[in-house]
Design goal:
Strand order of the largest sheet: 1-5-4-3-2
Order of helices and strands: EHHEEEEH
Number of domains: 1
Number of strands: 5
Distance between the termini: 41 Å
Number of helices: 3
CATH architecture: 2-Layer Sandwich
Structural class: alpha+beta
CATH superfamily: RelE-like
CATH class: Alpha Beta
Length: about 100
């Protein structure tokens, strides 16, 4: 199976840059793995429906598949990543509505 194109959101790219080198290597390996087989991750629910996550130790990589593109939306600790991403998505939706 051919790899899909992976795009990192600015927030996920910034979060990845601040990780310990070992964690960064593991996150990169997880992203490479989902590029080959996006079904490796688990479906998310509620506000994050349509997104998937893959576990990397205590970290989570949250991504969305759109055609042949995997968009990595967030990388972070399980304790906060889901709430942080939901808040960010709500804020982004509100900003788009105001821009109309």
């Amino acid at each position: 199976m051919a790899s899909l194109e992976v795009r990192l959101s600015p927030e996920s790219g910034e979060a990845s840059r601040t990780l310990h080198p070992d964690a960064k290597r593991k996150v990169r390996a997880a992203i490479d793995a989902i590029a080959v087989d996006p079904s490796l991750g688990d479906d998310l629910i509620d506000e994050l429906e349509g997104m998937r996550r893959i576990r990397v130790g205590r970290l989570r990589v949250i991504y969305r598949i759109s055609g042949r593109i995997i968009e990595v939306l967030a990388v972070g600790r399980r304790a906060t990543i889901y709430v942080d991403l939901a808040v960010r998505l709500r804020r982004d939706r509100a900003m788009r509505r105001r821009a109309r």
